[in-house]
Specification:
heterotrimer; A mainly alpha (300); B alpha/beta (417); C mainly alpha (279); A: 300 residues; mainly alpha; MetI-like fold; 2 domains; 2 strands; 76% helix; C: 279 residues; 14 helices; flat
Chain lengths: 300, 417, 279
């Protein structure tokens, strides 16, 4: 028999969850549903807003279009080149900063700057840094002799992708470093002392104490950084508008073009849905890993 | 204080006291706009609010780049500003959506319309209705740094062949002959079109059934650009340039010629402190022999001020529209600070003094100019053309391939409608 | 002796490398700084000048007249602080639920929470605009706080969840046996222990609201305008941009978040974790 207090106990987690879920429901539930519904229609906004149900036709059209497929490729390139670099650099920085015991806030203040600067400024700054004749990147490379003449970074497909990756890594490092630093600060000193007593050296301590303790935080940071990088629109748009020759036209830019320039809201929603599906798959993997560990932990 | 007196007046006279009624609020969104225009409109709105009590205008200067997100959202939801200042192509796009208010609804519209040039009025018309007042026109011309030319003993070119011939001398001096935005942005399409038009080409055929910009004229124009780039007379970094970078290139005297319009004078002065004595305007060059039978033209762009379709106060909005954009004295004189030359006939009366350099060139270009076709999918079409030019400039595709690919997409769009 | 030298080496390496990397990270901004100290016409000079010959502070003075930034600053502070506090409260609560309880639907809910991040902004824009309009919250501070809280909760919840799980359950069980309620435990013991993470996600939520442009732009008309909207309307134009004032303004307006972060670090992290970990 379930007494009221037992029911209350069973409902406790839901009480804790309620505020967050209500907000998310309002802000996100309807947009996702709306996109799903629209993706199954042909909404030519300019024809008096009439829409017809076309089932999966939008999806078929997108999957068959070279431009969409190449934008998927650009998204993957952009994200999975930026991410490992930013993670490694971020972890290295976090480890270094963790050694700073006094006046750490001052050092981390510097760290916060790329994150605190308005994104529009980040975009324009890197756009001009990579400018062929007025940019500091070329100036610097020329003066140390790494190049012979100005490289038109943003005018060629390969270098343009490199440029946006550099800007992206720079922009993400503060966030990654600060999160990992927070994780490092949570690792109890006793674990290190125990390892030292066992005779472990610095590297072994890192591998056997630091990394495992950081696993959750690294996982979360990795997951969300992936999601944000895949969905990012502003930085690339300001730097290259998706060019040159569509080399940096990632999926969010394609969605923007389809929905807001061509005013084909149905097909834009379909592209967004595919993005969502891809990211769901990625996060499903993470949740698997997370809960597999938890079950293992419970058994302990 | 005023309220107390009004209340007393009401009680004493038994009449509704003037001034007790709330002024009607009219919200104006001004997207982007050159600095001179922004200064003018702030003052004009202040003056308007000061000299009468029935209408209170709230002016918001808004970000240019994200205007579509803003306007599409407000149009779909049916709630937003009352007056907007936008490109004339919105009369087709948003007029259809019900996002703009047909000015024919106002009885005095014909009289107001008569104050503008007919060919400019056409640009804001869609299916017989006018969706805005065309306040400025922006014909595209050739911006020339004549001191660079003079230094190298060169004349202002009138044809592409002459431009090519200027190349070697300027290249020796380390200067590009010609520069243009070639990035993935609509500015690229707007600079390509004058070249296309001058060669006798058009975007569509007569019946708007298929794209013709990949015909001989368009191909020749694009080939011309590629040849200039390969010979070093045109910056190879152009494929990364938007308006900003192109202006920087020209204003720092790295290039002699560019295709620009009435906004150029004030911008090069205000942003780059360019010496205006060096600036000259000329007609956009075309090939010595036009390649298609259409009359050579240049591109005309028009800026209009419209009343939104979901406004709750159309009458008051119309009053504000007329006051700010027809009756205001700023429209009686062509003023380079306003970003375009007025479309009002009154600005071209004899005796009007303007500080525009080479105003006759602009006026002649305006008389001889053609706008983008007023097709509902025009933005998408402009993108396709910009993409094609960009592809060719990066060398990813040959000019023929790039234009043909774009034409294919455009034909699909034409079919869709 | 060996450990003391080791400790000293580590400290030196830490400060040295830390200082170096901090400077390297901020280095690209030197162009932003130098552009803000030059007249606009000199932005495009060849070769690029890093240290301008003549410094002018005109940009820093003129920018205030370009738009009503005092109103924007107030709105931004109110919105960002509210978002940070509310998002923190809701996320801590939710993260605690996920970390300490096993309940049906946990996996699904966790997925749902992260799923909310997976649409690009332009796809959420119009449907959300309809929702906010129907709620009557267009052009309002409350509306913006609601939206940004929704944007911030997923990451905050997930990170705190991971952090809470790393804190041993024995602490909690001991506290509960001693007669502590769950809420008391959360507030008095768990949060101080989790201070670094709380400060980090609080900063995240604050910066999210502080720097967000698109939704602030589309959802506001005249009353709830924030700094990012002001930056773009005032300094970015149809043709050319006023980089000197834009950069000056953005440098100034990046200071509040940094100041907040530094003071929070000093207050909570340095003060509380030092003692808490010993437990």
């Amino acid at each position: 028999m379930i007494t009221s207090s037992r029911l209350h106990k069973q409902l406790t987690p839901y009480y804790f969850l309620l505020p967050a879920l209500v907000v998310l429901g309002v802000i996100i539930l309807w947009p996702i549903l709306n996109n799903l519904l629209m993706s199954l229609q042909k909404v030519r906004l300019l024809k008096g807003g009439e829409s017809e149900w076309v089932g999966l036709a939008n999806y078929a059209k997108l999957l068959g279009s070279a431009s969409f497929n190449s934008s998927v490729g650009s998204s993957l390139k952009f994200t999975f080149i930026s991410l490992p670099i930013a993670l490694v650099l971020g972890l290295a920085l976090a480890l270094v900063f963790n050694e700073i015991k006094k006046h750490r806030p001052v050092f981390t203040a510097f760290l916060l700057v790329p994150w605190a600067i308005a994104p529009v400024v980040t975009g324009y700054m890197w756009r001009w840094l990579f400018h062929d004749s007025f940019g500091l990147v070329n100036y610097f490379l020329l003066s140390v002799g790494l190049i012979d003449s100005n490289v038109p970074w943003l005018a060629q497909p390969g270098p343009a992708m490199g440029a946006v990756v550099v800007a992206n890594v720079w922009r993400f490092m503060p966030y990654i470093t600060i999160m990992l630093l927070a994780g490092l600060q949570g690792i109890s000193g006793e674990l290190y002392e125990a390892a030292q007593v066992d005779g472990a050296n610095v590297l072994q301590r890192f591998w056997n104490v630091t990394l495992p303790q950081l696993r959750h935080v690294i996982g979360v940071v990795f997951l969300f950084a992936t999601i944000w990088m895949v969905n990012d629109f502003g930085l690339i748009f300001i730097m290259t508008e998706g060019g040159p020759a569509k080399a940096t036209q990632v999926v969010p830019i394609t969605v923007y073009r389809i929905a807001f320039e061509n005013l084909q809201l149905g097909r834009g929603a379909a592209a967004a849905m595919m993005l969502l599906a891809f990211l769901l798959a990625v996060s499903a993997v993470f949740i698997r890993v997370l809960f597999r560990e938890r079950r293992r932990g419970d058994e302990n | 204080m005023r309220a107390i007196y009004s209340l007393l007046a009401t009680l004493l006279l038994g009449l509704p006291a003037p001034g007790l009624a709330e002024p009607v609020e009219v919200m104006v969104w001004d997207f982007g706009g050159v600095p001179g225009h922004q200064v003018w409109i702030r003052q004009a709105v202040e003056d308007f609010n000061a000299r009468q009590r029935e209408i209170h205008v709230v002016l918001e200067i808004r970000d240019w780049a994200t205007q579509r997100e803003s306007l599409i959202s407000t149009t779909i939801v049916g709630e937003g500003p009352d007056i907007i200042r936008v490109h004339h192509k919105y009369s087709v796009e948003f007029g259809q959506l019900g996002g703009l208010y047909a000015l024919e609804n106002f009885p005095d519209f014909p009289e107001v319309a008569a104050r503008f040039f007919p060919n400019v009025l056409e640009q804001v018309e869609y299916q017989g209705k006018h969706y805005g007042l065309p306040i400025t026109m922006l014909p595209f011309v050739l911006a020339v740094n004549q001191s660079l030319l003079a230094r190298n003993h060169l004349q202002i070119p009138r044809t592409w062949e002459e431009m090519r011939a200027m190349g070697p001398a300027l290249k020796e001096a380390g200067i590009h002959t010609f520069t243009m935005p070639g990035g993935v942005n609509l500015d690229t399409a707007y600079r390509f079109l004058p070249l296309l038009y001058r060669a006798g080409g058009r975007v569509f055929d007569e019946g708007w059934t298929r794209a013709t910009f990949n015909g001989p004229a368009g191909l020749a124009a694009l080939n011309f650009l590629i040849e200039m780039k390969n010979a070093g007379y045109f910056p190879s970094a152009s494929a990364a340039y938007a308006f900003d970078e192109n202006a920087a290139h020209w204003c720092t005297e790295k290039a002699a010629l560019s295709v620009e319009g009435p906004w150029w004078q004030d911008i090069v002065l205000g942003n780059y402190k360019f010496e205006l004595t060096k600036l000259a305007l000329a007609q956009v060059p075309g090939p010595a022999q036009p390649l298609e039978p259409n009359p050579p033209r240049t591109l005309l762009d028009v800026v209009m001020v419209s009343i939104t379709g979901y406004t709750r106060v159309p009458q008051q909005a119309w009053t504000v529209l007329k006051a700010l954009n027809v009756e205001d004295p700023v429209w009686k004189v062509p003023n380079p600070a306003m970003g375009g030359i007025p479309a009002h006939k009154a600005a071209y009366e004899p005796g009007v003094q303007s500080r525009y350099i080479d105003l006759e060139v602009l006026a002649e270009a305006g008389r001889n100019a053609l706008g983008w076709p007023g097709h509902p999918g025009i933005t998408e079409i402009q993108r396709c053309i910009a993409d094609a030019v960009n592809m060719a400039l990066t060398g990813a595709l040959s000019p023929q391939q790039a234009l043909d690919a774009a034409a294919e997409e455009v034909n699909e769009i034409l079919n869709d409608y | 002796m060996k450990t003391r030298t080791q400790a000293m080496i580590r400290a030196w390496l830490g400060y040295g490398l830390g200082g170096l990397s901090a400077i390297l990270l901020v280095l690209p901004l030197i162009w932003v700084v130098s552009t803000s100290l030059r007249p606009l016409s000199e932005v495009t000079s060849t070769p690029p000048i890093v240290f301008p010959r003549s410094i002018t502070f005109n940009a820093y003075v003129d920018l205030w007249a370009a738009a009503p930034f005092d109103a924007y600053i107030l709105n931004s502070i109110l919105i960002s602080l509210s978002t940070a506090l509310i998002a923190l409260a809701f996320s801590i609560s939710a993260a605690y639920a996920f970390a300490r309880f096993r309940f049906p639907g946990a996996t699904l809910l966790l997925m749902l929470v992260v799923m909310s991040q997976m649409l690009p902004g332009s796809s959420i824009l119009i449907p959300l605009f309809q929702v906010i309009r129907n709620l009557g919250l267009l052009d309002s501070l409350a509306g913006m706080v609601l939206i940004y809280t929704g944007f911030a909760i997923p990451f905050c919840t997930w990170l705190l969840n991971g952090y809470f799980r790393a804190i041993p359950e024995e602490l909690e069980q001991a506290a509960l046996i001693d007669g502590c309620s769950r809420l008391q435990f959360l507030w008095r013991i768990l949060l101080p222990l989790a201070a670094p993470a709380v400060v980090a996600v609080g900063t995240f939520a604050f910066l999210l609201s502080w720097n967000e442009f698109l939704f602030a732009f589309v959802f506001t008309k005249s009353k709830a305008l924030t700094i990012p909207v002001g930056l773009r309307s005032a300094f970015l134009g149809q043709y050319v941009n006023k980089y000197d004032q834009l950069f000056a303004a953005s440098l100034i307006f990046s200071l509040p978040p940094i100041a907040l972060f530094v003071s929070l670090q000093r207050f909570f992290v340095q003060g509380l974790t030092a003692g808490a970990v010993k437990e």
